[in-house]
Amino acid sequence: MGFWSSAVAQKTTSRPPNILLIYADDLGYSDLHCYGKEYGADFIETPHLDKLASQSMKFTNAYASAPLCSPSRAALLTGKSPARLNFEFVTKYPQDQYRWADTAWTNKFKNKALIPPPFTLNLPLEEVTVAEMLKTAGYTTALVGKWHVASHHQVYNGWNPEFGPQKQGFDWAEDATGAWGRANRYGKLKEGEFPEDELTTKAVSYLKKKYEKPFFLFVSHYYVHTPLDTTLEWLIGKYTVKAEKMGLHYSAKRIRYAAFVEAFDHYVGQLLEAVDENTMVVFTSDNGGMPEFAFNRPLRGSKWNLYEGGVRVPMLVRYPGVVPANSVCSTPVIQTDFFPTFRELASGKSSDSMDGTSFVPLLKGSGQLKNRSMIWHLPYYHPEGNPKNKAPEEIGVEDGYISATYPQSSLRKGKYKLLYFYEDKRVELYDLENDIREQNDLSGSDPDTAARLKEELLAYLEKVKARLPREN
Asked: What is the pTM of this model?
């Protein structure tokens, strides 16, 4: 289907918009060419997402609610922070259910200063999800792909029948991984060929149906999460040659990752071709990229920690006739904002969620958001255990990790970002307007601001009854 050529197309209907949410997994801030070109990280080619950016509002201060998958998804679905939900880490298998005092749990942290809270395995059914909210506003709701807010059923990420999307307000739901993780079944492909992605095919089929009511479709991808399993040797070869020509000494993993991201871009392009002009498209990621190969620059950190590289993500919003095309928004937003934003678009009623604010005024270019605080809470170590009996600072690349994560929380208010580390009760303070790379810790030179933000952070955590790590 064709789209618009003017900066803002004319809306063709007064009906509330269909909402297509495309959720990437582990996509780094600068992985898309349209983001990375500003910071010299434009190695990966993403033509379909670049085209979407030219038709969208591009957010440069958009945040996931956590630096890892499950809590981000739980927060997006409910409009509540992981701290409030007590859902701060990735889900596990049912046998990984622990209590604070269980010997098996405390033994996992026998060489650590703190013992984190036991894993939360399932998003409680009593939580009202964005799908349930939109159903009350007259929407039909659908999800295809990754769920990951419930304990694994039989296989890794297998949908738990008691806590799956059908139990949380989704009328139609399809469990599909697509080409991700199943590359070997496709064999070697010719240059320019991509394997069929079952996840995308099912989403496209849904999009092409005729609906009497507006719909909400959550396309929850496994791309670009590891493993980097692909038989697109022609695409890997392309990036190998490109790196050589550019004088870039990239690892084989980073080359393979580039091919992985471009394959994902191809599937997103297929989705966008199936969308009509009364559909709002939201594209973003559940957290920052992996430290070994994703392009998080210029941001410090990565998936698994609360520096900007772990939580700041690309975000594009296209809605013809409402959102100015090829526009840029620098106002900070966070994924708990999706719940009240979608509610306002669906019902015309503006109201905040527990931890989110509608950003409809930003989309319309007609207003700003109030100066509010955004909070992240990760009371865990990563890796969560220590099977090799190493001290955290000794864990490195050979163990599959670039660096270890210690229990931490953070707060952003205006231009300031505060991080609080539970082991030594230490804080770091950064001015993100002037120090996006978080290199200049201001906690010593501006102790008043550090103290004020720390007090606000800890007061919020106490208010929402957040789970804190306890001394070992």
From this structure: 0.93
CB count within 10 Å of CB 418 equals 25
pLDDT at 209: 92
| pLDDT score of 187 | 67
pLDDT digit string, tens, across residues 419-444? 999 999 999 999 999 999 999 999 99
Question: Is 31 in a helix, a strand, or coil?
Answer: coil
Q: How many CB atoms lie within 10 A of CB 162?
A: 11
Q: Considering the chain, what is the average pLDDT of its residues?
A: 90
Q: Which CATH architecture has domain 18-368?
A: 3-Layer(aba) Sandwich (3.40)
- Spatial separation of the C-alpha atoms in residues 330 and 310, rounded to whole Å: 18
Q: In 89-202, at which residue ranges do the beta strands (DSSP E only) sit?
A: 114-115, 140-145, 172-174
- Burial grade of 181 (CB within 10 A; 0-12, 13-18, 19 or more): middle
Query: Given this model, what pLDDT does residue 228 score?
Result: 87
Integer Cα distance of 144 and 127 in angstroms: 20
Own/partner contacts of 115-118, CB < 8 Å, gap of 24 or more, are: 115/469, 115/470, 115/471, 115/472, 116/89, 116/379, 116/380, 116/381, 116/384, 116/407, 116/469, 117/86, 117/88, 117/379, 117/380, 117/467, 117/468, 117/469
Cα–Cα dist 220/11, whole Å = 27
Question: Which tokens sit at 180?
Answer: 């991700």
Name the CATH topology of 376-471: Arylsulfatase, C-terminal domain (3.30.1120)
Q: What backbone torsions phi and psi does residue 417 show, to the nearest 5 degrees? A: -130, 125
Token pair for residue 234? 């022609």
In 3D space, the residue among 415, 378, 374 whose CA is nearest the CA of residue 63 turns out to be 374
Q: What ranges do the domains of the chain cover?
A: 18-368, 376-471
Q: Cα dihedral sign for 111, 112, 117, 120? A: negative
User: What pLDDT does residue 398 have?
Assistant: 44
pLDDT for residue 56: 97
